[in-house]
Amino acid sequence: MALYAKLTRIIAHAYFKHGHSVLEAACMDICRWPQPDTPDTYQLPLLNTTVNVCVPSREAMHQVSPDLSHSSRVLVAAAGTLDIGRALKALLPQIQFLWELMLTAEPMIVRATTPHASSQLVLSLVSLILPIHYCGDYRPYFTIHDSDCQTHVQKSKGKIKHGRGE
Questions:
Q1: What is the pLDDT of residues 95-131, one digit of tens each?
Q2: Which residues pair with 41 in a beta bridge?
Q3: Which residues contact 159 (CB under 8 A, 6 or more apart)?
Q4: β-pairing, 49-55 with 73-75?
Q5: Where does 19-159 have alpha helices with state H?
Q6: Where are the domains of the chain?
């Protein structure tokens, strides 16, 4: 199961059972997590449970079975497994412009049909300028229900529209 889906399930279940205070507790737990800077298995506390997350090396990614439905561990894809070409395929005519936007950390809003497509597209855009570290604010998944959505949408009116993620 994907990490974000697993976390969402845990937090949502607790939220509907115990209310709004769960969100603050979840954020506090997440803030205490270590940086996953090396391939390893991490035990991450979240709302009185432990999420076991395996961050494999790039070499190990080819040896791990994709069917983890019977495992209690969550597999996080190594950074090198992001399919940038597929994520940016529809945007190739604007790739230089997008590269410049990412390099200068100009704001943009990405629309996609699914959370997975959105996160893949955002992470692909951020990785366009590697090895330069992206210094802007980015959110792989952002919905109209986020409290600051209207602020971002109002700022983007009148700007050039980009292609849609697939």
A1: 999 999 999 988 888 888 888 888 888 888 988 888 8
A2: 54
A3: 108
A4: parallel
A5: 21-31, 58-61, 84-88, 95-103, 115-127, 149-156
A6: 3-78, 84-156
